[in-house]
Design goal:
The chain is built from ten helices and 16 strands. By secondary structure, it is an alpha+beta fold.
């Protein structure tokens, strides 16, 4: 059997650049080398694409002496071209864009890969953009009947007219202020007093042009992994127990003791089924396929609200998404295989659509 030419795309112009490097390093260690020819494609912080010559390192960091490349659409598939010598380097069968946050999880790279007709792992263009935008996704989930937290949305042009007193009166205190388009708790602040609200909004506006101010939900954080295209399935549930005020960026990635994970979550079976069904509905309602992690807050009375969807969640061997599937019965290496298969199946399905009118 011929090996599949797999491109692992990592890095990117995102505040989550370093997280992408960690995910790519873990994936590199786990992918089946007998099934795939691995090609590491790094995107620098300024948006340049490089082909990494040495793929033996478990940490695929970008280096200055790598080959700068461009991606070219061919009559069948796509190929990598040396940006300087303008010569063909290799063709690709499928890519895994293991990128998080802006430019990686917001539909940007997904749209580019569709334009060059290259199969890719993960959620498609529209669902990536909607899933990344917490305001838009909440509107869709609310219409789908999935409970959401109450919130206000502030755009940059509206900043000078923000009425802190009115917002705090409506939502109560504390509130959480976060960029509408960011992941991994980047730019998120917990606000305990009205006088701190504007500063938190300004901080979130460093990362996006739109900011959400959400009511604080008293409860535990529950996460569910989704896998599949037309017929997605849900994993067992996991529970996050932050060891600080909330599950911050530092708690997720910098502090080894920032949080405790319980897999499976210790909650009633009926509640598990309800949240799994809600996670699948949240996934399908924004048009997602491939993979996502859907996060909820479970209240003491047994009710829940959806928090957000991560359409390209952290993918290290200790990240919640692969750990949830490991406890459901799918190993990390097998999970990668299944995701690549889903990508190829979706691409073939989409190629069967007519693109001309007779």
């Amino acid at each position: 059997m011929n090996k599949i030419n797999l491109g692992i795309i990592f890095g990117g112009k995102s505040a989550e650049h370093e997280i992408s490097l960690r995910s790519a390093a873990s994936m590199l260690n786990a992918v089946n080398r007998e099934k795939y020819n691995i090609h590491l494609i790094g995107i620098s912080r300024d948006g340049k694409w490089y082909l990494k010559k040495d793929i033996s390192s478990p940490t695929p960091l970008l280096a200055q002496n790598q080959t700068e490349i461009i991606l070219k659409k061919e009559s069948e598939g796509s190929s990598l071209i040396d940006a300087n010598g303008k010569k063909d380097l290799l063709s690709l069968d499928v890519v895994f864009p293991i990128m998080h946050g802006s430019y990686g999880e917001d539909g940007t790279i997904q749209g580019f890969l569709k334009a060059v007709d290259l199969p890719f792992v993960g959620v498609d263009l529209m669902a990536s953009a909607v899933g990344m935008d917490k305001d838009m996704s909440k509107r869709i989930w609310r219409d789908a009947g999935i409970p959401i937290a109450r919130y206000h949305c502030i755009r940059r042009a509206e900043r000078q007219n923000v009425d802190s007193q009115l917002i705090c009166k409506d939502l109560g205190l504390p509130v959480f202020v976060k960029p509408a388009n960011a992941g991994s708790s980047v730019g998120v602040k917990k606000v305990n007093s009205e006088k701190d609200l504007l500063a938190a909004i300004d901080h979130a506006l460093l990362y996006d042009h739109k900011v959400l101010i959400e009511e604080a939900i008293i409860g535990i954080e529950i996460e569910c992994a989704i896998l599949g295209n037309e017929y997605p399935r849900a994993s067992v549930l996991g529970e996050i127990i932050p060891q600080s005020e909330f599950y911050s960026y530092e708690a997720k990635y910098l502090d080894d003791h920032g949080a405790v994970m319980h897999i499976p979550a210790e909650i009633q079976a009926e509640t598990v089924h309800q949240i799994q069904a809600a996670a699948i509905l949240a996934f399908k309602s924004i048009g997602a396929e491939g993979l996502s992690r859907v996060d909820f807050f479970l209240k003491p009375d047994g009710s829940y609200v959806i928090n957000e969807i991560n359409t390209m969640p952290g993918f290290t061997e200790i990240s919640m998404y692969p750990k949830l599937w490991e406890h459901t019965g799918i190993s990390y290496s097998n999970l990668i295989d299944q995701l690549i298969t889903l990508a190829l199946e979706r691409h073939q399905r989409d190629k069967n659509l007519k693109t001309s009118f007779d």
